[in-house]
Specification:
Distance between the termini of chain A: 37 Å
Helix content of chain A: under 10%
Shape of chain A: globular
Largest interface: A-B, 28 and 26 residues
Number of strands of chain B: 11
Order of helices and strands of chain A: EEEEEEEEEEE
Distance between the termini of chain B: 37 Å
Largest sheet of chain A: 7 strands, mixed
Radius of gyration of chain B: 13 Å
Number of helices of chain A: 0
Largest sheet of chain B: 6 strands, mixed
Strand content of chain B: over 45%
Oligomer: heterodimer
Number of helices of chain B: 0
Structural class of chain A: mainly beta
């Protein structure tokens, strides 16, 4: 049984560019949450998608947007990248939006130069 | 002031010792408390999940929650070199899955 799958694993972008990160949830999970983890810090909640809608959002600017598809997979888009966006982006999935069974992927390491 | 405070360490212990980790928090609305382990270049892995106050034990791991003091702890007995990792506390006011994390404590267990 595959867990949470994220792609790509690593990415280098230039300031001002746009990036799209992808997440496939664990089988049986319908909710996807995205987190940003800066080096040496804990993950920070970006937003959560359930039934193809953004249900909750953290303190991130509108440059961060997302989408959930009918198969429950999700994308995180970041526009106008700046150096401070360099981080590990984690996706977590869970069944029914709850905390039980909350499972993280290995993340996408984004470097902005 | 951060909502969740956690000493970043590093915490170095000899193999077989008890590892003691803790977090303090300021938001009295937090009801769900979790501990995650994160190895380098990997995503966090859930170790313990606790609702409200009390103790919970699972194998070598014991989690304690003291809501009156806004303080949670994780104890790892008989520590092994494979326990070397970063340990993150996380909490949420409800079951909807928006977690607030501490900064993580790096633990090194030396043989």
């Amino acid at each position: 049984d595959a867990g949470v799958t994220q792609s790509p694993t690593h990415l280098i972008k230039t300031r001002g560019q746009q990036v799209t990160l992808r997440c496939s949830p664990k089988s049986g999970h319908d909710t996807v949450s995205w987190y940003q983890q800066a080096l040496g810090q804990g993950p920070q909640f970006i937003f959560q998608y359930y039934e193809e809608e953004e249900r909750q959002r953290g303190n991130f600017p509108d440059r961060f947007s997302g989408h959930q598809f009918p198969n429950y997979s999700s994308e995180l888009n970041v526009n106008a990248l700046w150096l401070g966006d360099s981080a590990l982006y984690l996706c977590a999935s869970s069944p029914g939006g709850g905390l039980l069974g909350y499972t993280f992927g290995s993340g996408t390491r984004l470097t902005v130069v | 002031q951060k909502e969740v405070e956690q000493d970043p360490g590093p915490l170095s212990v000899p193999e077989g010792a008890i590892v003691s980790l803790n977090c303090t928090y300021s938001n009295s609305a937090f009801q769900y408390f979790m501990w995650y382990r994160q190895y380098s270049r990997k995503g966090p892995e859930l170790l313990m999940y606790t609702y409200s106050s009390g103790n919970k034990e699972d194998g070598r791991f014991t989690a304690q929650v003291d809501k009156s003091s806004k303080y949670i702890s994780l104890f790892i007995r008989d520590s092994q070199p494979s326990d070397s990792a970063t340990y993150l506390c996380a909490m949420s006011p409800d079951s909807w899955g928006k977690l607030q994390f501490g900064a993580g404590t790096q633990v090194v267990v030396t043989p």
